Amino acid sequence: MIRNSNPNAMILYGTITSPFVRRVRIVLKHLKIRYNRVDTSTQEGQKQLREVSPIWKVPTLDTRKEIIFDSHMIIDWLISKFDSEKLLIKNTDNNLIMVADGILDSGINMFYLAKENILRENILYLQKQYERITAQLDWLEQSIEPSWYSGPLNYSTIALISAIDWLKFRKVHPLDEHLKLLEFSNKINLHGIIKDTLPN
Ligand SMILES: N[C@@H](CCC(=O)N[C@@H](CS)C(=O)NCC(=O)O)C(=O)O
Description:
The protein folds into 2 domains: about 80 residues, Glutaredoxin; about 100 residues, Glutathione S-transferase Yfyf (Class Pi), Chain A, domain 2, CATH 1.20.1050.10. Strand 4 and strand 5 form a beta hairpin. The chain is globular. The protein has 9 helices and 5 strands. It has a 5-stranded mixed β-sheet with strand order 1-3-2-4-5. Helix 1 runs parallel beside helix 3. By secondary structure, the protein is α+β, with helices and mostly antiparallel strands. About 55% of the residues lie in helices and about 10% in strands. The structure holds glutathione. Glutathione binds next to helix 1 and helix 3.
């Protein structure tokens, strides 16, 4: 199912809840690019996703010339094609992006398995995933700088806010001991584009 159909626009495959998809939604909005979305939370959307990607993961972008399978590659492509004013590449910190990915890899694993009643209390590997998230949150709490929320948006802070808000939304790991990260989330969510793309 395609929402807001426009026959020539690019097609983003994904859900509103996915943090990897949110990164791309933020970048598309920031660069004022109109697109259609196939909602992959439906059976029909899953079927369409599987017709274009053998990875079966979202985000996947159909640029109408090629299919791109991964959020990093999609965003690199969008920036190289549309970000002529260099709105997003400034201050990008690759370690921050890797930590955002690391939190999500572990968190999504835990989230999907919990749906099938497989919980960290019983599985050592899942306990390790949880502790890996804690270690990464601790690292972020120590590394955070005010420029992350007060400066212009950049790719690393977009990746980070998508990960932090997803943890809050899915309640995968508490954030009460990471006050600076909570402050980061509250402050950067004052930004219209960030607020408009919150998972719901
Ligand atoms: N490295 C990928 C990760 C994408 C990813 O893990 N997406 C999740 C949704 S949040 C997914 O599609 N999971 C489906 C599954 O594992 O079956 C990216 O950056 O796009």
